[in-house]
Amino acid sequence: MPASSSVRLNKFISESGLCSRREADRYIEQGAVLLNGKPAQVGDQVGPRDRVSVNGHKLEPKQAADAVYLAFNKPVGVTSTSEPGVRGNIVDYVNHAARVFPIGRLDKDSSGLIFLTSDGDIVNKILRAGNRHEKEYVVTVNRILTDQMLAEMAHGVPMLGTVTKPCLLQKETPYIFRITLVQGLNRQIRRMVEHFGYEVTKLERVRIMNVSVKGLPVGDWRELTPAELAGIMKMVEKSSGTEDASGGRRAPKAPAEDRRPKSGPPSQKNPAANGWWGPRPDKPAAPGKRPAKPGAGGAARPKSGAPSRSGSRPPAKGPAGGPRKGPAPRR
Predict the structure, then answer these.
(1) Which whole-number Å values give the CA distances from 311 to 76, 279, 298, in the listed order?
(2) Are the beta carbons of 318 and 302 closer than 8 angstroms?
(3) 266-309 tens-digit pLDDT
(4) Which of 24, 204, 211, 247 could form a disulfide with 13 if both were Cys (CB 3.0 to 4.6 A apart)?
(5) Among 102, 103, 171, 153, which residue's Cα sits nearest to residue 279?
(6) The model's pTM
């Protein structure tokens, strides 16, 4: 740390590799953090000569070059927490030489890709839903999927006092679909599926942002490649602080190219032509706006400047199954 610099206490703690900034604030509020031998307060600044300890352990800041970034293919049964008292926690399972902690969570009953790092500064940047960082999952359910269920799920599902953001879905088999999310509500996919009377029997996360789980066996971890890390840093360099990972539909609009599916976009004429449902690549759905219900009112609304129903021209006919200019096809 330069002689003339000082940083917020929670950032100092996270940069030591102990935990994220949010968890650091929790330690401070619990009185577990001492600054120069006295109980610290949230918002305290740490200078180059200050001494910081957490639960009696003295901390030293790590240099950025020492930071560790891991991709881990989590098995079912491992809990995504760094709490040492939790049996089967992810940190003990990985058993890395550096002090690492998970970025976000993946349910104990789910498997797949999760990041671990010693860089507490990057955690919130990745987790903030306002940045629309993609996470892709492969989901198996207990009964045959219907096109209507998938299309409605792509529009958004009411849960936990909000409506989920529009998302991309692709049917893989009669029982399996692929879904790409840009938010992380508690047990979101399981709740979305249950809303339609289905049950998840298997849930695997296969991609986070630009990193895929492909080639990484279940239970193994590897360091992120320089190209992967550079891509992540580029995505978070202008990280917004407008909301966290559980945010609703008030996220700022992202560029269209950021919302295109990585596995190949659907037909622009018909979003479900290749089994895809969700925002069209050429015209993504605007966050915060629920798509109109097909057939509402029995007739299409006349365009601006067109005669009304009372005029000499007959009213426009209702939808006949053609594509909609919105995030999902007509049904």
Answers:
(1) 64, 35, 18
(2) no
(3) 433 344 545 677 764 444 444 444 444 444 444 444 444 444 44
(4) 24
(5) 153
(6) 0.62
Q: 322: left (phi > 0), else alpha (psi -120 to 50), else beta?
A: beta
Asked whether 35 and 50 are in contact (CB, 8 A), the reply is yes
Residue 121, domain member (yes or no): yes
State how far Cα 312 lies from the chain centre. 52
- From the list 28, 53, 57, the residue with the least C-alpha distance to 43 is 28
Is there a single domain that holds both residue 45 and residue 73? no
**Per-residue model confidence (pLDDT) at position 256:** 39
Query: What token pair was written down for 153?
Result: 């799920």
Number of domains the chain contains: 2
Task: Please say whether the beta carbons of 46 and 35 come within 8 A.
Answer: yes
Domain CATH for 91 = 3.30.70.580
Q: Distance (Å, rounded) from C-alpha 269 to C-alpha 264? A: 15
Query: What residue numbers bound the domain in which 122 lies?
Result: 65-127+220-236
Per-residue tokens: 127: 């987790």
Separation in Å, CA 295 to CA 41, 132, 148: 58, 31, 14
Eight-class DSSP state of 284:
P
